[in-house]
Amino acid sequence: MSDIFENTILCKDCQKKMQPILVRKNGFNLRALGCKDCNNQIIHPEDLKEYADFQNLKKKNFKVKLRFVGNSYAVSIPREIIDFMNEQENEMNEMVDLSLEEIGRISLHF
């Protein structure tokens, strides 16, 4: 199946050929076409859908249990988040970075 961006797309305002660019939003690289003359942009529909899925997941508030396991505590990460992370990366590393950002706030980086 061919991709829509494999075709020549003309700018709706100046009728010049649009060039491939990357638009960065909240850590996402969105494929897009941009017009150098009038700065119009068209973001790839698949990337827009993935970004919308991210925004919806980001709005959710998950309540998870803090469990005592051996000499440490464990928190379960909802499957919905793991599935989304796996879609974004070909292979997710099982090791993550955990840091205390401030009182009451822990950061987890995949």
What would you note in describing this structure?
This protein has 110 residues and is an alpha+beta fold. It has 2 domains: 1-47, N-terminal domain of TfIIb, CATH 2.20.25; 60-110. 23% of the residues lie in helices and 33% in strands. It has helices at 45-59, 79-88; strands spanning 19-25, 28-34, 41-43, 66-69, 72-75, 97-102, 105-109. The strands form 3 sheets. A 3-stranded antiparallel β-sheet has the order 1-2-3. The longest helix is centred in the middle third of the chain and has 15 residues, at 45-59. It is elongated. 3% of the residues are buried.
Number of strands: 7
Alpha-beta content class: alpha+beta
Task: Please indicate the percent range of residues in DSSP E strands (runs of 2 or more).
Answer: 25-35%
Question: What gyration radius follows from the Cα positions, in whole Å?
Answer: 20 Å
Uncertain stretches: none
Tell me, rounded to a whole number, the average pLDDT.
Answer: 87
Distance between the termini: 32 Å
Largest β-sheet summary: 3 strands, antiparallel
User: Secondary-structure element order, as H and E?
Assistant: EEEHEEHEE
As laid out across the biggest beta sheet, the strand order is 1-2-3
Helix-residue proportion: 10-25%
